[in-house]
Amino acid sequence: MDLFLIFNVPNIIDYARVILLVYAVFLPDRLFLVAYGVSSSLDFFDGHAARFFNQCSMLGACLDMIIDRVSTVVIGMRIIKKEETMYQAISIYILIDLISHFIHFSMSTGSHKKCSNIFLKIYYSKIVLFPICLLSEAFFMSVLYFKNLNGIVYALGGVCVLKTFFHIVQLFTAISRMSMIRNVKKE
């Protein structure tokens, strides 16, 4: 067990994200949004800290990806609690998000962001990924914040549809790569 790796700077940031998510679950909507927003904002810093301190690791990449997925589930459940009519859309979004990331991550070598597909190269570029993730989070948070869904929320929802397109591409690319593996070692 490598305690220095387990408790390096980016992983501590990720543990803080988890603590904030757990705390958020017990809060009313407005305070939930604050705790959730801080947790989501920390996602921006864990990768930067990993590169800055030369602390990139498989554990860090895995924590980052899993916490991102869990965050989506947590806010999705909160939205469904408030807006039952969004159950199907949120469920499909989460389903595609989870499956695509887990299969893609299992086929990559340390990060779900390494890929050869042209659409995924575009998606994972810094100038595309950050705005899409930011606006997608803004959509989910806006649904909870506003009593009535307005034009801004619908526009942000379009970003989620675009993000889902990239997740579907990610899923099919990973399935295609996985289908090329013929021999699986069983222990």
UniProtKB/TrEMBL annotation:
The chain crosses the membrane at residues 15-38, 86-106, 127-146, 152-175. It is a multi-pass membrane protein. It is found in: Membrane. The keyword Lipid metabolism applies. One of its GO terms (molecular function) is CDP-diacylglycerol-inositol 3-phosphatidyltransferase activity. Keywords: Lipid metabolism, Membrane, Phospholipid metabolism, Transferase, Transmembrane, Transmembrane helix. This is CDP-diacylglycerol--inositol 3-phosphatidyltransferase. The gene is CDIPT.
